[in-house]
Amino acid sequence: MTTTSSLLTLTSVPVQAMARYGYVPSMLIGLNGIGIALAAAGAPKVWLLAVLAVAIATAFAAERIVPYDPEWNRDRADSVRDRIHVAVNETLIVASVAAIPLLAAIVPAPQWWPHSWPFLPQVLVAILIADLGITVVHLASHKIGMLWRFHAVHHSITRFYGLNGLMKHPLHQTVEMAAGVAPLILIGLPVDVASALALAVAIQLLLQHSNADYRVGPAKHVLALNEGHRFHHLKWAGIGDVNFGLFTLLWDHLMRTYSYDPTRRFDSTQLGMAAKPDYPNGYLQQLVYPFTRSGDCSASTHTTASDSDEPAPMSDPASKYRQ
Length: 323
What we know:
The chain is an all-alpha fold. Helix content is 54%, strand content 0%. It is an enzyme of class 1 (oxidoreductase).
């Protein structure tokens, strides 16, 4: 029995190493690369959903082979809700791609898009521009109470795993995507580039909220992956208002909202919202809650040192929505 256990342990080591160091490249380069090749070839758009299904399966496998916190792989009566969020919000993303020809017909766009460039650089330009728009709206959602009402749905999570990325109120998802894609449409974004961008967004959200304990080395200071994004989900106002980028942390470095502490270890007690530990958990409840009086998520009592060993600084008036 001991020999068998030792063999199983030895066999699992290379598998864990492959997951720890190969998961991110396989998603960012491998699956995105497949998507870019298919989009460049003008393949039917159903390919987007097929590649996304492979990405989700890969994400779940990595989270079980090298989990950051094994407890986060366990259902908390939230799995069905999260799958509904994913289905609704991914449908919105796909629909936005399908609507681009219609929008282009309604809103004449100047031909500023670099159509003559190779396809890959076109996709990379689209990612950088979308990243800026989404980052700005994300930051605004932490500063403006009306936006925070809807963004708070995403911050109610108390475990970190891949599907959390699309666990958003559909209205907030729409606002974020509009901020990222509208500037691109106005300069003539091609539909095939938009398809590759849509897949890249979905894959990035899986990686950014992954429970996989993967390694990317110094790239963690530039790419908006899970090591940095966990700091964004700290439950205290001000402290959690960092690392807003979707694809990169470049804009966070420029806006001085970047934060990273290699000594911090995360668990569920640090996630969520200190002001709303009882935030509604059901899908329909989360759709309606931002429209209710309680949906502003303001604190009825302030978090103090006696309530937490890490109270939030009141850096701006909107901090009360996270306090």
